[in-house]
Amino acid sequence: ATLPTRNDVPSNAKQVSIATLQACLVDTVDLYNATRQAHWNVKGPHFGELHRLFEDFYTQLAEAGDEIAERIVQLGGTANGTTQSIAGGTRLPPYPTNLYAGMDHVAALADRYALVGKALREGIDATDEAGDADTADLLTGMSRAADKMLWMLEAHLPPDTQK
Questions:
Q1: Higher model confidence: residue 34 or residue 158?
Q2: Which ranges constitute the DSSP H helices of the chain?
Q3: What are phi and psi of 101, to 5 degrees?
Q4: Average pLDDT value for residue range 36-45
């Protein structure tokens, strides 16, 4: 059930968009937390560069999460970002807490940024097909940002480790 709003996106499109956005919100918050974990614990010869890069990424993710949550509420939904919601709903694999070497963090994050990018693209298709062009547009911008962050991570890895 959605809360009353004057937003005229059709009810069925709202339902699809809210569910899609909630899943993306959970993944975004989980990725934010993984990126913070890497930021706090990275060690090695690339420490300074990676520490700053990860900080830039989690700042972008915090803004993206806020945009997603606000869109959920605009459509009459309730944005659920509690720790319990994140733990129970994330589609990402758990982030290892025993990583320290910079390139190990880069590889682990790259895998997760790729998954989030894929989920965002699936969300674009679902919300566009449901008739919510504004949500599809929001997710499109986020998909481009996720792809750029993935590219920047992959640029740190040797070419023979690319998938």
A1: 34
A2: 11-41, 47-74, 83-89, 102-130, 133-154
A3: -65, 135
A4: 97
